[in-house]
Amino acid sequence: MTVSLPGWNHSTFTHDGVTHETYRKGVGPAVIVVHEIPGITPKVLDFAERVVSQGFTVVMPLLVGEVGREPSGGYIASSMSKICISREFTTMAMHKTSPIISWLRALAQQIHSEVGGVGVGAVGMCFSGGFALGMMVDDLMVAPVLAQPSMPFPIGKERRADLNLSPDDEAAVIERAQHGCQVLGLRFTDDKLVGDRFSTLREKLGDAFIAIELPSEKKQDHSTLTEQRDDTSVERVLDFFAEKLL
């Protein structure tokens, strides 16, 4: 069901036979905001509005779930099951880039061709947390933000450290980092869904990886920019976008 968001332009984007709805608002350089499970919740929308207010064109693709619906146990489970069976997402496979990354890269190229600027920014959250890293294989991705990257699901030691990238894409990301492209990552310290990926990112990217690690106050602390929003971290993300894109 299509939902109207006041001030947001609703459309669809198709690449390689795959179509998803998109919501767009703002002016200025492009930032792709990729929602977390279960969908574009009110707090994901709140974060996107903050990015818009700082002088950016924000595009939110709807990859699963609904727009504007509050999270609940049943809704989260429903969205999770759809992600697990979809061929667009590699939830368990190691050393493999999720196919949805190709779609997101094409979306970024399209919006950049329209609004221009030095490049594009992106933020992924939870299951989409590592997507901005995969988009970094393109030179136009200059401000990648990883909020609690959680795929592949951290079952076993190797998956806990995996970056959800193919060997070729990982090599391209490392090369870009070596040439100065920084990556901003956020997580709560006790968030088991993130696994050991921050250690891998430090090892692979060195000083190009900027880690924001927040002390966990509750077991369920996970969503750094939305459900358990840390205002200081939100401001750091906005500063990162401004530094790289404006």
Number of helices: 8
Biggest pleated sheet: 8 strands, mixed
Average pLDDT number:
96
Helix/strand/pairing category: alpha/beta
Strand order of the largest sheet: 1-2-4-3-5-6-7-8
Shape: globular
> What's the number of extended β-strand segments?
8
Uncertain segments are none
Bin the helical content. 25-40%
Q: Strand percentage, roughly?
A: 15-25%
- What is the H-and-E element order? EEEHEHHEHEHHEHEH
CATH fold group? Rossmann fold
> What is the distance, rounded to the nearest whole angstrom, between the alpha carbons of the first and last residues?
35 Å
Based on CA atoms alone, the radius of gyration comes out at 16 Å
CATH homology superfamily: Alpha/Beta hydrolase fold, catalytic domain
Overall structural domain count: 1
CATH level 1 class label? Alpha Beta
> What CATH architecture label applies?
3-Layer(aba) Sandwich
Provide structural commentary.
It is a single chain. This protein has 246 residues and is of the alpha/beta class. The protein has a single domain, classed as Rossmann fold. The chain has helices at 42-53, 73-85, 100-115, 131-135, 157-161, 167-178, 197-205, 231-245, and strands at 9-15, 18-25, 30-34, 57-62, 120-125, 141-147, 183-188, 209-214. The protein has an 8-stranded mixed sheet with strand order 1-2-4-3-5-6-7-8, with helices on both faces. The relative contact order is 0.15.
